[in-house]
Amino acid sequence: MTVTDSRPARARRRGAEPAPDAGRIVIRDLRKTYTRNDGTTVPAIDGVDLEVEAGTFCVLLGPSGCGKTTLLRCLAGLEEPASGTIDVGGRPFFDTGSRVSLTPQERRLGMVFQSYALWPHMSVEKNVAFPMTTRRARRHFSRDEVRERVAKALATVDIAELAGQPISALSGGQQQRVALARAIAFGSDVVLFDEPLSNVDAKVRVQLRQEIHALQRELGFTAVYVTHDQEEAMELADVLVVLKKGRIEQAGAPRQLYRTPVSRYVADFVGTADVVEATVVGVEGPGLVAVTSEVGDLVVAAPGEAPAAGSSVGVVVRAEDWRVVPDGAAAAAAGVNEVRGTVRDSAYLGAATQYVVEVGGRTLRVRPQGSALLDEGHALTLRVDASDLHLVP
Questions:
Q1: Domain holding 33: CATH number?
Q2: Residues 144, 253: one domain?
Q3: CATH number at residue 325
Q4: Structure pTM?
Q5: Which of 205, 232, 259 is the last residue in one of the domains?
Q6: A Gene Ontology MF term for this entry (predicted)?
Q7: Please, are residues 147 and 16 in contact by the beta-carbon 8 Å criterion?
Q8: Domain span holding position 207
Q9: Which residue among 45, 145, 307, 381 is least packed, with the fewest CB closer than 10 Å?
């Protein structure tokens, strides 16, 4: 656990507000490699460029090994990059050109670890106070101020009554709140989260992420949050960053990544989608192209430059965008954006039922609205709007 920059902390104690860009993060051409036992090198971070505006909730999303945790640790100063620059609030944290490399203590960022990193022999309030009582920090925080900040942080995360309890007496969810209270006790401009909810059960996880999101909005700090949980990422993020093999595959608002993924990788990783192989036939109309696909002929939205006729493309279709056409309402033969299929399997998900439907020799995931139940072997017609389809290379 580290502490925030003493300059904005002192400004807040005087009643002044920190600079508008105090929590702004700028990363340029960052690179980090690891060396295997056989001597070969692996690029963990491979030329990352990223800007996070002050007060933004930024989520780094991707599977294990994509580089998201390494990027967070480089920002925190727990890993040394090979090259590039990291700047926070206009202050250089790392720069190979000018040979700047601040220690974690000098960066003074709030951080919530996956393992919580709490002292088991200390009480809750002493754990939260600890970073403010180190030799370097004592000159910035009086005893009265430490007590005030600890009390406020514990009340903010709703565990004030646990102040005197030992860490060993707390549940996983309560320990997570202690770790969060410690990170915000300084009024930090930037708080880093390394998969902080992976060790709590599903119900508590939902509650805690809602609390983290509300606290970030209330306190206004910049959050950089690492997770592999798609639902968690979509709920929390102002800016969602999907990484692949140490590179940013796509960054933007969650809806942008969900509706207009730039690649099959993003389409498959964000939400439930199938990518149907297709060949472009030609322009169908303004912003529309016609394709021949492995499930039939389709018309697809193409708001940008239309791909050339004969191009091989992927058509992204989300499970919830398919609609089941009622018996008797379908045409005698499947028309454009209507396909015929057979139910092969189903899974009840509570809010909806997801079906596996075989169409043209391949399967599609279909999550239609409504409560109608479809039996295995049921033949049906599916329809999807052109605006709900998206092309990827």
A1: 3.40.50.300
A2: yes
A3: 2.40.50.140
A4: 0.83
A5: 259
A6: ATP binding
A7: no
A8: 6-259
A9: 145
Q: Is residue 266 part of a domain?
A: no
The CA–CA distances, whole Å, from 46 to 70, 71, 268, 371 equal: 11, 10, 22, 47
Q: Are residues 143 and 238 in the same domain?
A: yes
Say how far apart CA 175 and CA 145 lie, in whole Å: 23
Q: Is the pLDDT of residue 11 over 60?
A: no
Percentage with pLDDT > 70 across the chain = 90
Vertex 173: Cα angle to 70 and 1 (nearest 5): 40
Q: Which residue type occupies 55?
A: G
Q: E strands within 273-392?
A: 273-285, 288-293, 296-301, 312-318, 323-325, 338-348, 353-359, 362-366, 379-383, 389-392
Residue 333 lies in a domain: yes
The verdict on residue 140 lying in a domain is: yes
Closest CA to 60 of 183, 167, 156, 192: 192
What gap in Å lies between CA 79 and CA 70, rounded to an integer? 7
Number of separate domains in the chain: 2
pLDDT, one tens digit per residue, over 227-273 is: 988 989 999 999 999 999 999 999 999 999 999 999 999 998 898 89
- pLDDT tens for 206-234 read 888 888 898 889 888 999 999 988 989 99
| 3-state class (DSSP) for residue 17 | coil
Instruction: Please tell me the predicted confidence (pLDDT) of residue 4.
Output: 32
Same domain for 342 and 217, yes or no, is no
Q: Which of 32, 116, 22, 35 is nearest to 69 (CA)?
A: 32
Nearest to 190 by CA among 61, 65, 27, 46: 27
The most distant pair of C-alpha atoms in the chain lies apart, rounded to whole Å, by 81
Co-location of 243 and 280 in the same domain: no
240 and 233 Cβ atoms separated by less than 8 Å: yes
Between 35 and 135, residue with greater pLDDT: 35
CB atoms within 10 A of CB 392: 18
Final residue of a structural domain among 189, 224, 259: 259
Model confidence at 276: pLDDT above 70: yes
90, 236: one domain: yes
Q: Is residue 1 part of a domain?
A: no
What letter represents residue 357's amino acid? V
Tracing tokens 């007590």 back to the chain, one arrives at 147
Tell me the three state secondary structure of residue 31.
strand
Look at phi and psi of residue 56 and say left if phi exceeds 0, alpha if psi is from -120 to 50, else beta.
beta
Q: Are residues 138 and 281 in the same domain?
A: no
* Whether residue 245 is found in the same domain as residue 281: no
